[in-house]
C-alpha cells in the first residue's frame, strides 16, 4: 500500500495523491509511505529519481542502520523492533528539502502513529520534513524501551530465584542464556542507531536549526540511556550465571567428597576381605573360634576411626553457596 499526505501553501491537507501530482509547486512538503508494498508498488520508488543503490537497499536484505548523503537528499536506514520477538525491522527513509519518503516491508505501528498525528495536529503542519523525521526516530526509540525494560524485569526476578533443585538450576541457566541472546540482538540495533544519531547531530549537510538539534539530542540521550540499561543488564546476567555455576560446582564437589569418603573407608575393609578371601589352607585365623567376629569387629573399628578422623578434618562440613 502506498499512502501520502501533503501540506499546501494555503494550509490544506491533501491525502493519497499520485506521485506525479506531488510535484505541484503549491505543495510545501509531502510524505509518501510505502507500507508493505507489492513488487509493482515498490517500483514506484524509481519515479522519485533516487539513486539505484539506495533503492536496492530498500528492496533487498536487512541493512545496518546508516546515513548516506546524495546530491539533493539524505538516505536513512533505521531499525524498529518487533515487540513480540525483538527482531529488527527495517525502515528506509529519504529526506529531501520538501519531502519524506518512507519504505518498509512490515507493518510498523510507529510509522502509523506519526502518520495519523501529522494528519490531525495542525501545529505539525508547518514543522517541515526534518521534524517528521525527528518524530519517526523518536517513536522508534520510544518503542525500544518496553523491550529493554521487560528483559531487565526478567533478570530482576531471576535474582531472587537462587538455589533449588538441579533441574530448576538447569532451567534458570537456559533462561539466562535466552535473555543474553535477546540483549545481544537489542545491542546490535541500539549501537548503530546511537552512531547514526551522533552523525545527524554533527552533520553539516542536514542544516538543522538549533531547536531541531535539541530535539535530536534528546533522542541521542534516550539511546545512551538504553545502551547503559543493556550493559548493566548483561553484567547482572553474567553475575547470575557465575553464581549458578558456582552453586553447581559446589554441589558437584559435595558429591565427589561423599564418594571419596565412602571409597576411602572401604579401601582397608576391602583389603582385609581380600586377604581372607584367598582360601589358603594354612591361615591360623580360619580355625580360630572367634576369628570371624574378630575380623568383623576390626573392620568396624577401622571404619569408625576413619569416620571420626575425616570428621575432625572437616570433610563433612559444607559451605553455604
Question: Care to give the gist of this entry?
Answer:
56% of the residues lie in helices and 15% in strands. It has 321 residues and is of the alpha+beta class.
Distinctive features:
321 residues, alpha+beta, Beta Polymerase, domain 2, Methane Monooxygenase Hydroxylase, Chain G, domain 1, 7-stranded mixed sheet, 9 helices, 15% strand
Please, could you describe this protein's structure?
The chain has 321 residues and is α+β, with helices and mostly antiparallel strands. The protein is 56% helix and 15% strand. The protein has helices at residues 39-42, 52-59, 109-120, 129-142, 144-158, 166-201, 210-275, 284-287, 291-312; strands at residues 2-8, 13-15, 27-35, 66-69, 73-81, 88-96, 99-104. It has a 7-stranded mixed β-sheet with strand order 2-1-3-7-6-5-4, with helices on both faces. The protein starts with a strand and ends in a 9-residue tail after the last helix.
Amino acid at each position: 500500500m502506498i499512502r501520502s499526505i501533503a501540506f499546501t501553501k494555503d494550509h490544506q491537507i491533501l491525502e493519497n495523491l499520485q506521485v506525479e501530482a506531488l510535484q505541484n509547486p503549491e505543495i510545501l512538503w509531502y510524505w509518501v509511505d510505502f507500507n508493505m508494498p507489492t513488487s509493482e508498488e515498490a517500483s514506484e520508488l524509481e519515479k522519485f529519481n533516487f539513486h539505484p543503490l539506495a533503492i536496492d537497499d530498500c528492496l533487498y536484505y536487512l541493512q545496518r542502520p546508516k546515513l548516506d548523503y546524495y546530491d539533493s537528499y539524505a538516505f536513512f536506514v533505521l531499525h524498529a523492533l518487533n515487540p513480540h520477538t525483538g527482531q529488527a525491522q527495517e525502515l528506509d527513509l529519504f529526506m529531501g528539502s520538501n519531502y519524506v519518503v518512507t519504505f518498509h516491508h512490515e507493518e510498523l505501528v510507529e510509522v502509523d502513529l506519526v502518520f495519523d498525528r501529522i494528519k490531525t495536529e495542525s501545529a505539525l503542519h508547518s514543522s517541515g520534513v526534518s521534524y517528521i523525521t525527528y518524530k519517526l526516530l523518536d517513536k522508534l526509540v520510544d518503542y525500544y524501551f518496553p523491550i529493554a525494560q521487560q528483559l531487565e524485569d526478567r533478570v530482576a526476578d531471576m535474582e531472587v530465584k537462587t538455589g533449588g533443585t538441579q533441574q530448576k538450576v538447569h532451567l534458570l541457566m537456559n533462561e539466562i542464556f535466552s535473555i543474553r541472546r535477546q540483549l545481544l540482538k537489542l545491542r546490535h540495533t541500539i549501537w548503530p542507531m546511537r552512531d547514526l544519531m551522533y552523525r545527524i547531530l554533527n552533520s553539516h549537510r542536514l542544516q538543522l536549526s538549533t531547536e531541531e538539534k535539541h530535539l535530536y539530542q534528546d533522542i541521542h540521550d534516550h539511546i545512551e540511556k538504553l545502551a547503559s540499561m543493556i550493559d548493566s543488564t548483561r553484567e547482572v546476567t553474567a553475575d547470575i550465571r557465575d553464581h549458578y555455576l558456582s552453586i553447581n560446582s559446589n554441589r558437584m564437589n559435595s558429591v565427589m567428597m561423599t564418594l571419596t569418603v565412602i571409597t576411602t573407608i572401604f579401601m582397608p575393609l576391602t583389603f582385609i576381605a581380600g586377604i581372607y578371601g584367598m582360601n589358603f589352607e594354612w591361615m591360623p585365623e580360619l580355625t580360630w573360634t572367634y576369628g570371624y567376629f574378630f575380623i568383623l569387629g576390626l573392620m568396624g573399628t577401622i571404619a569408625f576411626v576413619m569416620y571420626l578422623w575425616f570428621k575432625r578434618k572437616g570433610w563433612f562440613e559444607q559451605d553455604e553457596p
